[in-house]
Specification:
There is one protein chain. By secondary structure, this protein is of the alpha+beta class. It has a domain at about 15-75 and about 95-150. Helix content is about 40%, strand content about 20%. It has 5 helices and 8 strands; from the N terminus they run H-H-E-E-H-H-E-E-E-E-E-E-H. The chain has helices at about 15-40, 45-65, 95-120, 125-150, 215-225; strands spanning about 75-80, 85-90, 155-160, 160-165, 170, 175-185, 185-195, 205. It has a 5-stranded antiparallel beta sheet, with no helix packed on it. It has a 3-stranded antiparallel beta sheet with strand order 6-7-8, covered by helices on one side. Strand 3 and strand 4 form a beta hairpin. Helix 1 runs antiparallel to helix 4 (about 125-150) and helix 2 packs antiparallel against helix 3. It is globular and about 65 Å long. The N and C termini lie far apart (about 50 Å).
Length: about 250
């Protein structure tokens, strides 16, 4: 007999329920804004969406070639919403390029998805119900993206628990060193060299184009607190300025 997966209920007192509820409210509003007009008029044709698909493709390619230089700093916050708790630490927000990339990705995925829904025949008895189900799924996917953007504080966060990038947390004990990561001849993110290498598993990369803090400052901060992360929980701290050594790869 198959064993059903168990759903773990988050602790009531973890301090994250305010963020969760706010994220759910934003997700519901975004999903409703997309689903409501489409469910009211589920009959639409692909011809009207073909231009949107091509525009989304062109815009996405152009956005990838726009690479503004980040100049932000890690900011001390007394309350950083992480994966399992609220902690003090240093946080870096999502960059303007990161927001543009996120919007472009949503449009790039949403446009073809709507085009696919338009191919579902609406002259069959099952056509409109299927269209409505797919519209709800598409709206829910958009809501999920909005939820995670609200749920967590900052794009990158350094707390006593570890280095968090988006939803993924890297424990300090697993980080041997932080170095600048290069991709296609350009510095793009910070590579966290693991203390124990796993076969065929590349080192995780954090930050980069979608983060408002440049890689050199992220490297300097990670190296500053890598061996003493408890300092981040002790009180307001500042992020060190990068040195020549910390900018190397």
């Amino acid at each position: 007999m198959p064993v059903l997966p168990t759903v773990r209920m988050p602790p009531i007192g973890d301090g994250l329920w305010g963020r969760r509820l706010l994220g759910l409210a934003v997700a519901a509003a975004a999903a409703g804004a997309v689903a409501t007009p489409l469910l009211r008029h589920p009959r639409f044709e692909f011809d009207g969406l073909a231009c949107l698909v091509w525009l989304a493709f062109g815009a996405r390619q152009l956005v990838r070639h726009w690479w503004p230089r980040p100049a932000g700093r890690l900011v001390w916050l007394a309350r950083i919403a992480g994966r399992d708790a609220v902690e003090p630490g240093l946080a870096a927000r999502r960059s303007l390029a990161g927001w543009v990339d996120l919007a472009a990705d949503v449009i790039w995925i949403g446009g073809p998805a709507l085009a696919g829904i338009a191919f579902v025949p609406d002259d069959q008895d099952w056509g409109l119900p299927v269209r409505r189900v797919l519209i709800v799924v598409l709206a829910a996917a958009l809501g999920r993206v909005c939820y995670h953007e609200v749920r967590f504080t900052g794009r990158v966060a350094l707390t006593a628990s570890g280095v968090r990038y988006g939803r993924r947390l890297h424990a300090w004990a697993d980080i041997d060193r932080a170095v600048a990561h290069r991709r296609d001849g350009r510095v793009d993110g910070v590579r966290l060299r693991p203390t124990t290498w796993q076969p065929l598993e590349p080192a995780p990369v954090i930050g980069g184009r979608d983060t408002a803090v440049p890689e050199a400052r992220l490297v300097a901060a990670i190296e500053e607190y890598r061996l003493r992360p408890h300092v981040l929980a002790g009180g307001p701290v500042s992020a060190p300025e990068p040195t020549t050594e910390s900018t190397g790869g």
